[in-house]
Amino acid sequence: MKHSLASRFRIVLPLAVTLSLLVSLFAFAPSAFASNPVIQSVNPMAVPTNAYTQIVITGTGFLLPDPVVTVEIAGSPVSYQPIVSDTQIIATAPPHVAGFVDVYVYGGAHTSTLPNFQYVDPGVTFNVTYDGNCSGTCGTVPTDGGNPHAANSTVNVLGAPSLNKPGYTFGGWSLGGMGVPTPISSFVITADTTLFAVWNLVTTFSVTYDGNCSNTCGSVPGTSAY
After folding, report:
1. Does the reported pTM lie above 0.70?
2. Rounded to an integer, what distance in angstroms lies between the CA atom of residue 35 and that of residue 25?
């Protein structure tokens, strides 16, 4: 029986060599098997200028095999604890001058940036005001008796004891912004803040009665609104 040259000469690699080649393949191109880091939030978003402060960076793609991610604040590398989650980094924000800066997470050739991270001078305070968010008079907005609040402190949102807007129900207070406002119960204050009333439109329908006759056949009930 004749055999081809390929079938007569077949090289079988030992298992250890095969595994070593596979490991080398993954190490050669790690970006093909890992996602890019993406920052979704940083908590807190404001820290004092004169202290080292722990922050929690939340996102995705933080567990990169090689190279590891690098965290920077205002362009300077910061220390952080060993990453044990693909979605969270616990880092230490160093002292810095007051103002807004960016937080960066680098992973390979990819960079994710979160702006508006704030350094606040110790002793700085901010006020909270309430806006009824209606074109006419809809009552009296509450006054925050806790003003002024220390920077980076948690503010509990008040109720609405004397507000009324015809055709709407009160839905709480929000920080405003585009789209549908989201009511909040508390927030961390980093600047003078205005909270806006959230009004939910009350949808009504009317029921009308028709005698369903060609001539006058009596009186139908009046229209009712629901």
Report:
1. no
2. 17
